[in-house]
Design goal:
With 188 residues, this protein is of the alpha+beta class. The chain has one domain (46-183): Alpha-Beta Complex (tt1808, chain A), CATH 3.90.1570.10. The chain is 22% helix and 34% strand. It contains four helices and eleven strands. The strands form three sheets. It has a seven-stranded mixed β-sheet. Strand 3 (73-81) and strand 4 (89-95) form a beta hairpin.
Length: 188
């Protein structure tokens, strides 16, 4: 426990329940936000290349998953629940389709994908650590500017033990789901 000196300010970390109450009360109307480590963080507006890449990746992943008769499916703009203080919104998610709760939880998820236009540093640091800490088996960051995909797998001790970078224009093969492959040619 962190002991503070008398008079020192202590930040208050919101829980998912607090965040939901604020959202239901309209506190985030007309804003895109997510909860990271108990802090409400704003999300930048989405430009056309970001939206195009996000939606096309989801579409191509969905087709590829069906092509290999996978029990998983692909989703866009998915809220994840990592209690007690985290509710990130993933750009693309590969997960079980039979989830009964309000949000996807770590056990439901095979791959999380963030599309990075202005968020590359955050996606490669804060989000990568968050997903690794919660045991997400595989994490991709699709870099809009460089047209490449950073892949991470083997979550261990709050980070990923393994990584590689592949060109977006070629075949992008999942490491943890070896039959799953999408081709990024022509997305951007």
């Amino acid at each position: 426990m962190n002991m503070l000196a008398p008079g020192e300010l202590q930040p208050f970390k919101l829980r998912i329940e607090d965040y939901e109450l604020l959202g239901e009360a309209g506190a985030f109307a007309m804003q895109r936000v997510e909860l990271i480590e108990g802090v409400i963080v704003t999300v930048n507006s989405e430009h056309v290349p970001h939206g195009r890449l996000k939606n096309e990746l989801m579409f191509r992943l969905r087709l590829a998953l069906r092509g290999i008769a996978s029990p998983l499916d692909a989703y866009v703009e998915a809220s994840l629940s990592f209690p007690p203080h985290n509710m990130p919104d993933a750009d693309v998610l590969v997960a079980r389709p039979d989830v009964q709760g309000r949000y996807w939880e770590a056990a439901d998820i095979a791959i999380v994908i963030e599309v990075a236009a202005s968020s590359l540093r955050t996606d490669l640091t804060v989000k990568k650590q968050l997903y690794a800490e919660h045991g997400i088996p595989e994490y991709w960051v699709a870099d809009v500017s460089r047209r490449e995909v950073h892949q991470f797998w083997t979550p261990r001790d709050g980070d990923y033990a393994d990584a590689r970078i592949v060109p977006l224009a070629g075949d992008i093969r999942s490491i943890t789901l070896p039959d799953l492959m999408v081709n990024g040619a022509g997305i951007l």
